[in-house]
Write a structure and sequence with these properties.
Distance between the termini: 23 Å
Strand order of the largest sheet: 1-2
Number of helices: 4
Number of strands: 2
Largest sheet: 2 strands, antiparallel
Helix content: over 70%
Length: about 100
């Protein structure tokens, strides 16, 4: 297990914020379209979206275990950047410091 540990109290307090960010990212990932026409572009787009969604799932699983999962974050951020969604990637990256005052 790797990632930033979250205390149970912080997790309970920050759960709505964390989940709002992750669920918003998932929704926006699902709304993206391939940048170019064609079967190959669609295939790569689907794979990139799937990676991003899996990264979000890893973040949620880690959160439920009391941590911000580094591997899930990296996977989600890489996908978001590949889909040219840098603002969303930055939002996900900020989750690493969610419990740091």
């Amino acid at each position: 297990m790797t990632g930033t540990s979250i205390s149970p109290d912080d997790r309970a307090r920050l759960d709505p914020v964390f989940m709002q960010v992750v669920l918003d990212v998932q929704a926006q990932l699902q709304q993206t379209k391939p940048a170019q026409p064609g079967t190959l572009a669609a295939m790569f787009h689907k794979e990139t979206v799937t990676d991003g969604l899996q990264g979000c799932a890893m973040l949620i699983a880690g959160w439920n275990q009391g941590r911000v999962d580094d591997a899930g974050m990296a996977r989600a951020v890489k996908s978001l950047r590949a889909l040219e969604l840098p603002e969303l990637a930055q939002r996900v990256e900020k989750l690493r410091g969610i419990a740091v005052d």
